Amino acid sequence: MKRFFVCVALAAVLAAVPAFAKKTYVNGIDPNYPPFAYVDEKTGQPAGFDVDSMTWIAKHMGFEVTHKPLAWDGIIPALLAKQIDMVDSGMSITPERAKMVQFSEPYWTVSRVFVVPADSKLTPKDILSQKIKLGVQRGTSEANAIKKEQEAKGYPFELRFYDSAPLAVEDLLNGRIQAALMDELPADDAIAHGRAVKKAGTHGVPDQFGVAMRKDDKELHKLVNEGYKKLMADPYWKELQKKYLNK
């Protein structure tokens, strides 16, 4: 009788355990990079084009994903230290980053733009040739590119570094800087939310966004690439573009 109850108890335990547990990956995101990734002020939860994209991919590729907000300039070190498993958060594919991580296939292309107050008459030529204060988000491809360009060409502007593009916009409106360089869609997001700024023009070559992963994580690399391929073929891809990017 005792053996019978043991067998029944064991069967109950086994029945409660799923046939297989889904693997959970942690996606590191910039908490203030709308519309691609941010923390929603109303819900306190991660949101954005990239967040929703990876959530969809996880569901359809058979894994779980959580989104972890992190400081952008420390996000690759966190990836390499295995605190997170990927970065799907508007990260530009650059040769410097590719030395440290592997990227998915590109999923989006975005231009870099100069942003100025709505009543400003500054042009891109003015910004590059005058002694103004120019804001950029630290740790970004545009920050690294404009710094190298300034050193090579001797541009007279003073660079100011910020933790996010929206913070640069705030200082732009407060008169602490005269222009900011950022990706076009965050600039569009600021304008759409009523910030009194405008795009003065593009600068440099467009960036391609990809998902960053550790170089030895071949399984995840395959899942992400296949997942984005499925997503782009699904009507939900267009829904995300309409919701977040006004496309």
From TrEMBL:
<keyword id="KW-0732">Signal</keyword>
<protein>
    <submittedName>
        <fullName>Amino acid ABC transporter substrate-binding protein, PAAT family</fullName>
    </submittedName>
</protein>
<feature type="domain" description="Solute-binding protein family 3/N-terminal">
    <location>
        <begin position="24"/>
        <end position="247"/>
    </location>
</feature>
<dbReference type="InterPro" id="IPR001638">
    <property type="entry name" value="Solute-binding_3/MltF_N"/>
</dbReference>
<feature type="signal peptide">
    <location>
        <begin position="1"/>
        <end position="21"/>
    </location>
</feature>
<dbReference type="Pfam" id="PF00497">
    <property type="entry name" value="SBP_bac_3"/>
</dbReference>
